[in-house]
Design a protein that fits this description.
The structure is a single chain. Among the domains are: 144 residues, no CATH class; 171 residues, no CATH class. The chain is α/β, with parallel strands linked by helices. It is globular and about 70 Å long. Strands 3-2-5-6 form a four-stranded antiparallel β-sheet, with no helix packed on it. It has 18 helices and eleven strands.
Length: 461
């Protein structure tokens, strides 16, 4: 396959890069997928000897219905419009005739570009098969839950979902977060979200459609910024993140629908309830059977870190998240390094002040570890985080949380966090490589020892 595409040299070049080059990697993958599609199409045309794969694809496309067809049409349209004029990357900049997915012009385009639309449906079929295979392998290997999907807080306002579900989404507004402890300037995520009025008017059909698609091949679902079920911080186009306002959502209706789909799919639900949490919100999540999230950095009582036994028994526990520093990174102050470099420190603070605070926090955390008997002796130096990781993982594992998730970055002992909110290209978000191939990642002695320790702390039931 690689020889057929002529990509061998390019793939070697990409693998040798210190950071992942996603545009170049995507272009290479696209060529490989095109080759796969051409092979598939040649087999599918032979109706007498149609393969099981061809039959599976035909059934998948039939079951996908309008949602799949709209997405495939959009992708084909978007590729054409963007190639003609890169300024038309957002469908709202297309000629008026193309902005309506039900227009006669779109129907004519679909008829004239049937193969291209079939190709984009084929890509969704491959993704669906991959997820199904991964979930099957996970369950057969003994994982009670298997995959836990991740439901984003919103979608790209210039993407297929917004184009095909215009009646149900907000236009001209971006989801974000107000200033808080970790991000003093607030955040603008560049995503749009559902319209409360649009959801009610449609009987919540787009919301239900989204839940079912995400639970199709998963044993659980993490809902990013679950606070958005109650209210979202929305920033007008062209405004700064601290100039937004909250828009309220029909929380009760949405929680009931999530609970129903959770029951139908026999899946656990985790709500990322971090940030500025309204009073009583976590009780409402608990009442709907949705686990919240408890993160080591935030579980404090005044300046003390809360002991494991006092953590919630109805929320997932974790040392950190992809948007926060790793354990070793926090201990070394790498997050302070980055926030200082990118002018993300709170307006009334300074780098020196932040480092003084972190020094006190390190001692408080190590004291908590010693009290919980997961560490002993004096606190390590800032750059010696290995033993801190070991202690943090044990500390979180000893909580009464029904589910504990340990980030892969902590298992393998990395300093850098995957993502820094509030940045686009200033920080290498989602571009860092893990230190070894996936098959070998946990073979390193330190990683293997941490996994063994976790198994001892939380035996498989």
């Amino acid at each position: 396959m690689i020889a057929e595409t002529g990509l061998a040299a390019e793939l070697q070049r990409l693998e040798a890069l210190a950071l992942i080059d996603w545009p170049a990697a995507a272009a290479a993958r696209y060529r490989i997928l095109r080759t796969l599609f051409e092979r598939h199409a040649s087999v599918a045309l032979d109706r007498k000897n149609r393969s099981a794969a061809a039959q599976s694809f035909a059934e998948f496309r039939k079951q996908g219905g309008e949602a799949l067809e709209d997405h495939a049409r959009f992708e084909a349209l978007h590729a054409q419009r963007y190639a003609a004029d890169p300024a038309q990357w957002n469908w709202r900049r297309w000629p008026q005739a193309w902005r309506d997915p039900g227009s006669a012009e779109v129907e004519k385009f679909a008829a004239a570009h049937a193969d291209e639309i079939r190709f984009h449906a084929f890509l969704q079929w491959l993704a669906d098969r991959g997820l199904a295979d991964a979930q099957r392998a996970a369950r057969e290997a003994g994982m009670a839950i298997g995959l836990i999907g991740d439901l984003a807080v919103g979608t790209d306002g210039g993407g297929s979902h917004s184009w095909s579900r215009q009646h149900a989404v907000l236009v001209g507004l971006s989801v974000g977060a107000p200033p808080d402890l970790m991000n003093g300037l607030g955040q603008n995520w560049g995503l749009t979200a559902f319209s409360p009025r649009g959801l009610r008017a449609s009987g919540y059909a787009p919301f239900i459609e989204m839940l079912r698609a995400n639970l199709r091949h998963a044993g659980g679902l993490r809902i990013d910024h679950v606070l958005g079920l109650a209210r979202l911080w929305l920033v007008p186009e062209g405004a700064s993140a601290n100039e937004g306002a909250y828009l309220h959502y029909p929380l009760t209706d949405m929680l009931r629908l999530i609970a129903l789909e959770s029951w139908r799919h026999r899946a656990v639900i985790v709500g990322e309830d971090l940030g500025t949490v309204p009073d009583g919100f976590r009780d409402q999540l608990d009442g709907a059977g949705i686990m919240g999230m408890r993160v080591l950095w935030f579980e404090r009582a005044y300046e003390l870190f809360v002991e494991p036994a006092r953590w919630s028994s109805t929320a997932m526990a974790t040392p950190t998240t992809h948007d926060l520093p790793t354990v070793a990174g926090w201990w070394a102050g790498r997050d302070i390094d980055w926030r200082s470099q990118l002018a993300q420190l709170p307006p009334d603070s300074s780098e020196a002040a932040e480092r003084d605070i972190r020094e006190r926090e390190r001692h408080a955390l190590w004291d908590a570890f010693r009290y919980a008997e997961v560490a002993q002796g004096e606190a390590p130096a800032p750059q010696q985080g290995a033993s801190v990781i070991d202690a943090a993982l044990k500390f979180v594992a000893r909580t009464p949380a029904p589910l504990a998730i340990m980030p892969i970055e902590d298992i393998v002992g990395l300093d850098e966090q995957p993502n820094l909110p509030g940045t686009i290209d200033q920080h290498p978000n989602w571009r860092r490589r893990l230190p070894a191939p996936a098959a070998d990642l946990f073979e390193a002695p330190a990683a293997a020892a941490r996994l063994l320790s976790l198994r001892e702390e939380r035996p498989v039931k």
